[in-house]
Amino acid sequence: MDAMPSIDLEHAGTGGAVVFERVFEEHGHYVWRALRRLGVADVDADDVCQDVFLVVHRKLGTFQRGASLRSWLYGICLRVASDYRHRAHHVRERTTEEAPDRAVPAEQDTELDRRRALAWLDRVLDTLDDEKRAVFVLFEIEQVPMAEVAAAVGCAKVTAYARLYAARRHVEAAARREQARRSPG
Prior knowledge:
By secondary structure, this protein is mainly α. The protein has 2 domains: 1-89, RNA polymerase sigma factor, region 2, helix turn helix motif (Rna Polymerase Sigma Factor, Chain: A, Orthogonal Bundle); 107-185, Arc Repressor Mutant, subunit A (Orthogonal Bundle). Helix content is 65%, strand content 0%. Helix 3 crosses helix 6 (146-153). It is globular.
């Protein structure tokens, strides 16, 4: 899926500018999306994505040919997002939904529901520890095979499955609480 025959990673260290540009073009959206699911605020995602690609640029020559580029990138995202969340000066901001100034056409309801669901998922993911969150995001959201997930987070496959199981239970419990909260009663 992410084998990239179009990018010559073998020469990443020698003529790396073109290779880096291709990696950025082909995986920039993936990195941004991964960072958002890893707890990076929307307003900071572009800056943190830039931090990820600074690391990629510096380490692209060390990428092991034959390895999964997406898993390697995700590993970098994990570390950079973790650093972002643990910065002392980092202030966690929460946006609030305000009433629109004018009427919104009916077709916007679906988009609003989608945004609310993503905001809810982000809040639930914020309550998971880093290890469970990383496995859940990679496997459930990015649909990375479990062997690659385990390699990206640096644990045994059985440990990754255990973290996934615990994360799923946590998310399911949060969904039940949200459903109960919304139910008339």
